[in-house]
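As the next step, I selected for study one protein, both as residues and as discrete backbone shape codes, as given directly below:
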Amino acid sequence: MQAADFFIMSSNRLSPVLIIYKQLIRESQKFTLYSYREYFIRRIRDEFRRNQDLKDRSKIDLLLKKAHSNLEIIRRQVIVGNLYKPQLSVMEFQSDRK
């Protein structure tokens, strides 16, 4: 099974793995702080790449449950993080000047 087959089911529907991956990435992009945003996106990509060759259905289901739990944590942290206006980092300050 190739990595592309793992993410897309035969009936042209997106697999639950791809759906949760996209949700995690989208939600992580809502962090206002650059360092948090980049940290979570990097961790999500690394974790999904590490498990892309996984074939054991029970292990995949367990990891999907964990991903859903992490999605809820990220959503809460985005809300809490956006309650306060942080000072811009050097990286954000440079991108805002362009």
User: Anything to note?
Assistant: Residues 57-82 form the longest helix (26 residues). Residues 3-97 form one domain. Residues 32 and 82 are 7 Å apart (CA to CA).
